[in-house]
Write a structure and sequence with these properties.
single chain; 196 residues; mainly alpha; two-stranded antiparallel ribbon; 2 strands; 68% helix
């Protein structure tokens, strides 16, 4: 059963498109999964939520693939979907009451080694590329600055692409990146001064 095939259209081809174009679109879109997951993890700070966010992003992207303008930046289009989906999830989450399971909190505290929480292999893998001090400083940044710095310096998007993704003026993006980098520098300088 192919849910995209319709009467009169060749099997495996959506109406108005070709199977080859869809396969090429899917292959290119899936090539960005690691970058999307890394950014989703930065936004959600929880691996399970990051996986859900990436899955929702791809679901929306594949459903709307006919709206994508060929020849434009697919990576930026996917990141725009990711950020919009995250914003919607966060807004919806704010409407739900928060239940705290104090027993689970106590168990989490008990599962520490030498005062540090154990991380699962996935968390270790996603954090491995960044030096520990840089990772800590980046994690300490307020969300708006962390997001802007991550998209510019790690994902290497242009200011204009970031502005479109997070739906703020380009001047705001530039200001957030500048302030975020300054905060990172200050935090890392303190760490280095303490180590000396």
């Amino acid at each position: 059963f192919n849910p995209r095939s319709t009467a009169g259209a060749p099997s495996g081809s959506p109406p108005g498109g070709s199977g080859e174009n869809d396969d090429a679109f899917a292959a290119e879109a899936l090539s960005y999964i690691d970058s999307l997951y890394g950014t989703a993890l930065r936004l959600t700070r929880r691996p399970a939520d990051a996986e859900d966010l990436v899955q929702d992003t791809y679901l929306k992207a594949f459903r709307a693939s006919q709206q994508f303008q060929r020849g434009t930046n697919l990576k930026a289009w996917l990141f725009t979907i990711l950020h919009n989906t995250f914003r919607n999830m966060r807004r919806d989450f704010g409407r739900n009451p928060v239940d705290v399971d104090s027993e689970a909190v106590e168990q989490a505290q008990a599962q520490t080694v030498g005062g540090e929480a154990r991380e699962n292999p996935e968390q270790l893998l996603t954090r491995a590329p960044l030096h520990a001090d840089l990772q800590a400083a980046l994690d300490d940044l307020p969300d708006v600055f962390r997001q802007a710095v991550w998209l510019r310096d790690v994902e290497e998007f242009t200011y204009a692409e970031i502005a479109k993704m997070i739906e703020v003026p380009i001047g705001t993006v530039m200001s957030r990146i500048s302030r975020g980098r300054r905060m990172l520098y200050e935090r890392l300088s303190k760490v280095r001064a303490g180590a000396a």
